[in-house]
Amino acid sequence: MPVIEGLAKRVGVPISVDTYKAEVARRSLEAGASMVNDVWGLKADPKVAQAAAQAKAPLILMHNQHGTQYQEFMADLKASLEGSVAQALAAGVPADKIIVDPGFGFGKTPLHNLELLRRLMELKALGFPLLMGTSRKSTIGLVLGLPAEDRVEGTAATVVISIAADASTRSRRA
Hints:
about 170 residues, alpha/beta, 4-stranded parallel β-sheet, globular
């Protein structure tokens, strides 16, 4: 918490805290964090949404799961994110404070990650801003045959694909 407090006083940029624990979310927001990125999309601790709602803070809902088994990958991913969004709304998080993250690299095989990039535009139907975190991920290394320190161009390509799919823009609900 001292690090968040110190940064909040010294930097003029939003501070996002990655967690799946409500108490960490609550205390981080009290310490000066601006938003919470729930890396389990409220599946580990649904009370993370209450912490965000009480603080009137944006909440990022990331798709994640144990294992990489899906009945139908994109349909399952979308249904999971819809469930997370419904939980957040029920807990009082305003729709304009919700961001969805399909969780590139989490609970997915490299082929799933590539399919996600190819079909990313389909997630805009959820009606919320999309966040993509692809920096130096192992799928990029696998495709390009490069170690993490040499994946900058691959990361840039995934960022361009994400922007082309309208990720990081305002949603229709905003």
